[in-house]
Amino acid sequence: MEYLSPTTVEEASELLAARPDAEVFAGATDVIPQLRAGRAEPGALVDLKGIERLVSVSADDAGWTIGAATPTADLTGNAQLSAEFPGLVEAAGLIGSDQIQNRSSLGGNLCNASPAADSVPAMVVNDMRAVVAGPDGTRTIPVVDVTTGPGSTSLGPGEFVVEFQLDHRPARTGDAYLRLIPRTEMDIAVVGAGARLSFDEAGVCTSAAVALGAVAPTVVRVSDAESALVGTAASDILGNGDAMAAVAAAATAACNPIDDKRGTVAYRRQVAGVLARRAVTAATERALATNGAATDGAAANGVS
Amino acid sequence: MARTHVTCTINGDETEFLCEQDETLLNALRDDVGLTGVKEGCGTGDCGACSVLLNNRLTCACLVFAPEADGATIVTVEGLASAEALHPVQQTFLEGAALQCGVCTPGFLVAAKALLDHNPDPTETEVRYALAGNLCRCTGYDKIVRAVLDAAADMRSDGALTAD
Ligand SMILES: Cc1cc2nc3c(=O)[nH]c(=O)nc-3n(C[C@H](O)[C@H](O)[C@H](O)COP(=O)(O)OP(=O)(O)OC[C@H]3O[C@@H](n4cnc5c(N)ncnc54)[C@H](O)[C@@H]3O)c2cc1C
Ligand code: FES
Ligand code: FES
Question: Is the pLDDT assigned to residue A128 strictly greater than 50?
């Protein structure tokens, strides 16, 4: 295998067009273990970290741009991003150990296309978009459209994710991500649940997004939970009223899980309901704590 | 394929080595540079025995391709002690018997240094999270955690003495 290190998006695109046997990588925290496990070797490995745009995080009036190869440690270390999107940053920060955090990227977590990828439900509830470069130029697609099944994506030959776009959160909006693993660190999610809710000044939910990981071949949006939440008062959500029973039931119903050593189908279904409810509660508490402004998120507390 | 020439700074010394393009940094450090303090436990990022600082970031050398090290600054366990003294964390591991077979120890020492470099006064919980990427199959974690907390305390009081 050849190691190639382009320094611009254009150079990388040209390389990938000329070398159909090449594969991109960022932190290699999935790639190297897979190669060791005997996965077919690509002819060349294209290191995306040499491209400045892929390893930077920035914000403007519209929102955030997160380079696809940026180590997740740079997200957890970004106080502003953590304050505005605590759920997204928590999800990214759950990936592996400190050693892994210094290498693992959102682009790799998404494009490795593991059903259990922790950052993906959090990216999906935050409506993040992926900017994809390829032989025909760039296109921007919702993150939820990138994975198509375990280990497979909708990216075409020569395409790679350059960066993620994330709009600033509206007033009174909060996000959260929770996962269940058999231990506190260094394991793969049995179930992961992301939620994001927005409220009006009267405290009524105006929009809701709930997504589950590790319970189906790809991340799943739980639209029945979302419609049960919209129009519900924050006090009912926090009081675990009827809408929350509907959230749990919808999450359980949305699962299409497998049996494995980490959990049975029945266990995963039940846990999905519980975690979805808790993620909605955490997102609601954060939304209420933000007090309106989009950039004052420091009030968001570290519920986990 | 021709071997690749890599130039980097390892433990303060400018170092050059030749490697295969798909070789890991772990292999290169051990076999091409001769720094066998960097251990291989799993080769898949799970055990932390291969922990090094790569551009001042704690990293598993087994999950890095060797050519990525070109132009980088690397610290391995061999770079922790000064000519005069062990690093405080090496000293407290010795004093507290925080090792048995020692295979995991270089990785724990480098991870502990990485923690103490940016957090001189960690809580026990912070130490346990910071070392979650390092596995030990013989000593048990209590002695290791205590050694890191003791080293932190020693470094704080040494710092206070030097400041006076
Ligand atoms: C010890 C250990 C613990 C782990 N714990 C967790 C965990 O708790 N939760 C979790 O979700 N994951 C975990 N992982 C898996 C892995 O660390 C994550 O999936 C990580 O985010 C992958 O990022 P990477 O940059 O290292 O990806 P890489 O290994 O570099 O790439 C992964 C895949 O994505 C493709 N790819 C990478 N970047 C791009 C891009 N920009 N565009 C298109 N394709 C791209 C690559 O071709 C490859 O197929 C763990 C891994 C290890 C070794
Ligand atoms: S050898 Fe690198 S983490 Fe185990
Ligand atoms: S001392 Fe033997 S593995 Fe830790």
Answer: yes
